[in-house]
Amino acid sequence: MARRSSVDVGFLLIDGYDVMGVTTDLTDKVEAIVEEMLPYGEGWPDNLYTGVKKAELSQEGYFDDAADSINDALKDKSGDTRVLCYGLEGNEVGQQFIGYKGAVQVNYERVATRGQLHRANAKYNGSGQVDEGAIVHGHTARESDGDTKATPASVSAQTTAGGVAYLQLSALDLDGGNDLTIKILESTNEVDWDELLTFTAATAAPAAERVVIAGNVKKHLAVSWEFDGGTDPTAKFFVGFKRN
Fold this sequence. Notes:
Helix content is 2%, strand content 56%. It is an all-beta fold. The strands form two sheets. Strands 1, 2, 3, 4, 5, 6, 7, 8, 11, 14 and 16 form an eleven-stranded antiparallel beta sheet that branches. Strands 9, 10, 12, 13 and 15 form a five-stranded antiparallel beta sheet that branches. It is globular.
C-alpha cells in the first residue's frame, strides 16, 4: 500500500465549488454507534454495534473572497445539506474518491489573527450514506464534446447491485449555447458502449448531483459530454461512481 501525503489530495468540491486551493486541513471521521450491554451478574460489559454509523467532517483553510472561492462556498450555508466529494489519492481515473450524499454544514468560522492570514473553517455532519468509489472523470477542464472511452475506469467483472454516481461541475461557460449534458457509459469489452445514466443537463456552475441506480453495472465505465450550441464553450467537472 502506498503512503499518501498532502500533495496527493486531488480535489475538494462542495456543491460544485472548488475549494482545493484554499484548504489546508481536512478531517473525516466515520463512527460506528455501539451500545454498552451489561446484564445483571456480569462483571464485564459488552459493546454491541447497533448497525448505525455517523459521519463528521471538518475543513480548515484560508479566507478568500474571490468569486466561487471558499467564502462564496460557505457563507450563509450553515444548515444546508451539501453534496461533497474529495480525493485523497489523486485526480486520475480509477483512483478512489469519497462522496457525501449529504453533508449538513453545521457552521462557518472566519478567523482573523494579527500577523497571520485570515482563516475560513467549516464543520459538517453526514446526512445519509458516505460512499467510497472510483474516479471516472477527474476534475478536469474540457473545451469541446468528447468522451473517455479510451481510458475507462474498470473492475474485474460486471457487478449486479447498482451504484451511486456523483457529478461536481465547478465551471461552465456555454458561450451562447443552451446546456451541457454529461453521461456515464458502460461496456463489457471497451468497444461497444451503452448509456448507464445521464445527469441533469447543466446550464450554470457551480452545481452538483448525486444519482442512484439499480441493477447490473458492466465492468468498464467511461464519461461522455456534449455541449448544446455555443461558439467555444468550456467546462470543468468531476464524475465518480461507487458500485454497490
